[in-house]
Specification:
Length: 293
């Protein structure tokens, strides 16, 4: 049972329970296979109990608590769990995230699944928080992309929110994003925009990618909801923002790194997107240790 589950903020709506349950089931099945944890079975009496803590080895931001809790719950529903640091909380080295008390075999069987989810998601949240901090003095928001690990998109995008970022479209089905290849096949910026507007309903947003001010002028003439300014230097971005003049939202993308994001934000763009948030974030070092009372 869970003794205390921290209240999520309005911005951190919990992940859908069925997605969490199914992902943990698949991951535990991958680890336990046909025979289960033969090491714990061999070394530990069936009735042995373990009191452990999940603690951070480094500074960062928490994400993935739901999945860790689910992993321990699935191996033994009677496991007692206390959440000390909820998703979105900041960590210092040594901070305890979870306290777990349960059957030793069950706890240790779930250990790696819980740590894998939390390490990856907390790493993404931590990197996102670093980007967000660099642009805090501006109006710019940090966006993720679809450059996610296959099968883990919902969790990685949730982790971006834990770090203070904003989700771009989740998939191909929920928004129109006209890229350079679409423009090339459609015959140009204007043609692609006209076809998109004729195809989708009024609630579907349309964004288009441009890589020059000339293309941007075509977009301004046709209109859209958002424009992606791809791989432009800061002077060009600043001019692009001036030309748009608030008619629609602006997103900068390309060559976005921790050491460049501040200057990009200071051009006045509404959003900056970075695939690195989900495809290159280092795992946050978390560990499971025997609790010392």
């Amino acid at each position: 049972m869970i003794e205390r589950l921290a209240t999520m903020t309005a911005e951190l709506t919990p992940l859908p329970a069925h997605l969490v349950r199914e992902a943990v089931e698949r991951t535990l099945a991958e680890d336990l296979g046909l025979s289960g944890d033969i090491t714990s079975q061999a070394c530990l009496p069936a009735e042995a109990r373990a009191r452990v803590v999940m603690a951070s080895r480094q500074a960062g931001v928490v994400s993935g608590v739901q999945l860790a809790v689910e992993a321990f719950r699935q191996t033994d529903p009677q496991t007692r769990i206390v959440i000390e640091k909820p998703d979105g909380a900041t960590l210092k080295p040594g901070d305890v995230v979870l306290r777990i008390d349960g059957n030793a075999r069950a706890v240790l069987s779930a250990e790696r699944t819980a740590l894998n989810f939390m390490g990856r998601m907390s790493g993404t949240a931590s990197l996102t928080a670093a980007f967000v901090e660099r642009v805090r003095h501006t109006k710019t928001r940090i966006l993720d992309t679809r450059k996610t690990t296959p099968g883990l998109r919902a969790f990685e995008k949730y982790a971006v929110r834990c770090g203070g970022g904003v989700n771009h479209r989740f998939a191909l089905y929920d928004a129109v994003l006209i890229k350079d290849n679409h423009v090339g096949v459609a015959g140009g910026v204007a043609q692609a925009l006209r076809r998109a507007k004729a195809h989708v309903g009024p609630l579907v947003k349309i964004e288009i990618e441009v890589d020059s001010l000339l293309q941007l002028d075509e977009v301004i003439a046709e209109g859209c909801d958002m424009v992606l300014l791809d791989n432009m230097n800061t002077d060009t971005l600043r001019e692009a923002v001036r030309r748009v003049g608030g008619r629609f939202l602006t997103e900068a993308s390309g060559n976005v790194k921790l050491d460049t994001v501040r200057a990009i934000a200071e051009t006045g763009v509404d959003f900056i997107s970075s695939g690195a948030l989900t495809h290159s974030a280092p795992v946050l070092d978390l560990g499971l240790d025997i609790a010392i009372t």
